[in-house]
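Can't paste images in this forum, so I'm doing it all in text. The chain is below; anyone willing to post the predicted structure tokens underneath?
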Amino acid sequence: QYYYPISAAIDGNRTYANGGAWYDDTPSSFPDWLQVDFNGSKTINEIAVYSIADDYYNTADPSDSATFTLYGLRSFDVQYWN
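Text version of the structure:
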């Protein structure tokens, strides 16, 4: 079994085929969660969540109009403090 570290979730790489995904070492064990702590106050205008594509070997960046039928996230929450 292999996994991609949690840092891969926020490293700017959005393509699973290039290691741009968090894939934990407990597959099919839920819930999973990710917390990002910044080193001070930040202004964030957008949070984008991209899920794995059906063709996960494709190295093209995901888009806001991309869809999936096989492997993508089906339920998640984004929480933040203001």
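The mean pLDDT is 86. DSSP finds no helices and no strands in the chain.
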